[in-house]
Amino acid sequence: MKSIDSHIQPQYFLKGFLAAKREANHDDFLFVYKKGMPFKTDGTRKENNPSKSGLGNMAFVKNFYAFLKDDGTKDTETYEKKLQQEIENPGNPVLTKLRTIQLKKSEVIKVADFLSDDERRKFTRYVGGMYARSKKNREKFNTVVQESSKEANKQGFSYADIASKLPPNEKKKFEQYCRSKNPEFDESTGRFSVPTKYVEEFGDKTQKDESFPKSIFRAVDLLEPIILNMKWQIRITSALNKFFTGDEPVFYTNLREPNAELLFPISSNAIFCASNNQNLTEDIFLEENDKFVTEVRDIFAQQCRELYFSTQAKWLVDFFNRR
């Protein structure tokens, strides 16, 4: 199967951070900032920082959600489509609705009056997906799997431990597999070594099976009730106080802590904020505090390796490289 460009940040999401076009018929674009590179605008796309980029030419990795099937062929599209159908498409209308909010000075809208419970759930799953599908999250996942596989390869697996969590039909298949590897296998006490296929799939820095794309949906399911239970605010800023996004578009602290917070810029002039502070009112309002915008920029400049912004600016290169 041919390779595809897997967009880690969906193009529809990135449209919230577009640069202004000189002509209406020009293609959509924005500016990509790369950490550690000096400000330059007169070179090639690879040399420039920031570089001007169309939506189709950025925030992607070849076959990022691909996996090897049991027959050895590569599946590049299953999880690409699953993300689109189950996370992106349901969340996009809510994203659009939030981006089109226009407020007068001192005007406040209650979140509950603006978003239905269903819209709130769909947006929650969208936010969870944006966190779980990032490059850094995949690197963390790869590291954990590598460490676990090395340990398992030393000790082998306990049949009893694994089989206790399987439904009957899967347990039978699992027992058959173990016996195919060792006819003397004892299911009551046996331990078995890591299968060769497992070693081959998990022995390098990139997992080749579908464990990573599956983990995205497990993370979304895990985060959904937690985020739904937090207090929500949507803060809208002026045209002068713009947010950027990047290759790590969601920031959050330990969501099980009482002071936890989550930040997710959804456009150049709107940010989703969630908090475990139950005293907060769930409002949509104009954020007129310049310090808040600066603090958000600082957070994302620290955690991202690329930033995506609507403007070409030397100050942002300098700001990014100091973080």
Please explain how this structure is put together.
This protein starts with a strand and ends with a helix. Helix 2 (about 80-100) packs across helix 4. The strands form five sheets. It has a six-stranded mixed β-sheet with strand order 7-15-10-14-13-12. It has a four-stranded antiparallel β-sheet with strand order 3-2-16-11, covered by helices on one side. Strands 1-4 form a two-stranded antiparallel sheet. Strand 12 (about 250) and strand 13 form a beta hairpin. The radius of gyration is 23 Å and the shape is globular. It has eleven helices and 16 strands. The chain has two domains: about 60-140 and about 210-310, no CATH class; about 145-200, no CATH class. By secondary structure, it is α+β, with helices and mostly antiparallel strands. Mean pLDDT is about 85; it is low at about 195-205. It has helices at about 10-15, 80-100, 110-115, 115-130, 135-155, 160-165, 170-180, 195-200, 210-230, 290-305, 315-320, and strands at about 5, 30-35, 50-55, 60, 65-70, 75, 110, 155-160, 190, 230-235, 245, 250, 260-265, 270-275, 285, 305-310. The protein is about 40% helix and about 20% strand.
